[in-house]
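Q: My labmate handed me this sequence with no annotations at all. I'd like to see what the chain might look like in three dimensions before we decide whether it's worth expressing. Could you predict it?
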Amino acid sequence: MPPRGVKSPKRKRQYEHIKQSAVKRGAGSRRAKQIAARTVNKQRRKAGATKKARSKRS
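A: Here is what I predict for the chain of 58 residues:
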């Protein structure tokens, strides 16, 4: 299951592909899910598809 907020089919496919690659490299299933979720979220942040966090300094 992709991270919350991932709605596009492209990101879902990306998540599954990364997860399978990590398992193939020898990571456990739990670790593979973490790697995939972090990578997908990182790509979403770069593309500007996530909410901006408010700064505590205002």
